[in-house]
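A brief tutorial aside. Many learners find it easier to grasp structure tokens once they have seen a single protein encoded end to end. The record that follows does exactly this for Histone-lysine N-methyltransferase. Read the sequence first, then the structure, and try to relate runs of similar tokens to stretches of the chain.
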Amino acid sequence: MAGDSGEGGGGEQQNSRTGWGIYDRLKKVPRFSKDVTLRGRKVDVPETASESATRRMVEDLFKQEADAAEPLGDFVQIERNEITHRRPKRQEEAEITVCECVIEQENPESPCGDQCLNMMTCTECTPGFCPSKDLCRNQRFQRCQYAQTKLVKTETRGWGLAAAQDLKAGDFVIEYCGEVIPVKEAFQRAKAYETAGRSCWYLINLNGGEYIDSIQSGNLARFINHSCDPNCETVKWSVLGEERIGIFATKDIVAGTELTYDYKPTWYGGARMRCSCGATSCTGFFGTKSKAFQIYMREGAPFGKDAYTWEDEDERLDVEEAELIDDTEDDAPLSAFIDPTFIGKRNRTGHITNAKNAGTVTKVTAEKSPVSGGTGTSPKKEMTASVEAQPAPVAGPSNNPSETSAPVSRRVSILKKDKLKAQHVLGRFKESSKKKAIKAYVAPNSTKPEAQADKEPKKDQESRHSKKKVRFDDDEPPGEKKLVDVSMFKRARTVINELLLSEIPESYPISEAACTEVEFAQELAMSTESDLKKICEEIGPAVKQFYRRDESTSEEVPAPRNEEEKWIEARCKHLRNLLNFHHSIAWTLCRLSLTSSANPTMHARNGCTSPIVIYELVVSSIRFFRWIR
Ligand SMILES: C[S@@+](CC[C@H](N)C(=O)[O-])C[C@H]1O[C@@H](n2cnc3c(N)ncnc32)[C@H](O)[C@@H]1O
């Protein structure tokens, strides 16, 4: 259990890593009170909201453990990720995205709800910058605003987490907290856990370079089990500059239902774990869709040599009966090809073995695929068509909406959000004001710099130290806040890299809506590209003047500055911020192209800008960005 010291006795102990920990068996949770001595007198500083949320969670945990027959195991309860291998990111002021929410007196739901631009892009508002101030509802990770949950003991999967209140699709359930570790260490730990015979793992991928491990430190999210037909999903959020993972409901969930999400596990060889989620669409083992597993299923080597199954004596399912997946079907839920009324699994010969009655073999034929009550067309096409005609999942006896429509209708809503965001970015960055900015402030022959030389740095200084900490774009009317987001640009790189690394299926159904989206993205790409070029050409000379090469180190260093140069620096900063708009645009269009098509071949077939072009565009932005910095 959390913070177990194993020393007996009772009381509180300060955990060096996580603040207050809990260690005794008296189930006493210390209040997060901080006794501060002020001029010789002790002052009691009250708990913050997040501190009391954590305390309540820990108390719950104790209570549930006390009720339970089995202990939960040792782990330290934490309320936010622990990052030890690097410095936690500090959000620069220029990186903060400020939404445009307006508080409407008559509408309590108005500030930072579904229409909040930050909310739409999975970014939490930054306290002190959000126009909704304390009414902001988009700081759920920061304030630990979790749904009510309770621990449950499952029959086959150890502990699990269940909803203790009714939830709606899209509701935030809980953050997945743990120790943030580099990928290499994650692999080493996974190996070590396996070697030690531990089949219960708590590793989750955070980003291209890091994992979260909640084996030693974590919160209740670590108890959520995997299901092949889950009712929740993980979503990456940007919180104060750091990436964090949240668990969100994907369906309406009734209180008492176990919460699950798809771990999307990858198998790299070694131990194979049986999945006991019990879903109709269950693939039998963890990681059956991963390449290594599929290669092993087809060819045995090279992963087969050290492969074994946990609990070998367990005869519920043999690995030979695990499903062999056609790579080109990656995007379609497996259930789309399986009769939902038939509980079973496909084996390597395309037969289905009934899991309830192992040994019985039934051949699945194309006609048997019942999705949308199909005719002669392929099940996959039918699924796409039915989704376009019917974005909201509709229950029906002949198809299984929870397995087919729901994920795709979600994709549709993501598209809408992206389009909105793109329009917003474009609207804020009008061609005319941009040209004016460049001409007025940067053109080397301009007369304006002298005239404004003494005023500008002061103004910049003022805004830097302004108490409100909101930065204004000089070209925009006062009150218009600047929208700058560098983290988006980093995300763009990750997304594009993932895309480039991913396999391209040969054919993919294309919807008209998707084509429109891609065309829209193409327009954005083209205007972004020309904007970038123009800015490069115009401010290049000014920036170069500002730096000189240090002979000893051959590095570019800022030259000694006079007022005018200081002014140029301020202008460069200003332009860098403008450039961040371009990153946002590039990022948005990448997401547009990705979410709309999920497949680059589509672009080629429709003569649209290919992701490679977008990629190059973003790479050139990166180079330019570094250079100007
Ligand atoms: C993040 S933990 C979930 C909590 C865990 N059940 C516990 O008692 O602490 C992940 C582990 O739970 C087990 N597990 C989760 N989902 C499962 C499933 N569908 N089938 C079998 N085991 C599962 C596996 O041992 C897995 O490594």
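Self-check: The mean pLDDT is 59. If you spotted this yourself, you are ready for the next section.
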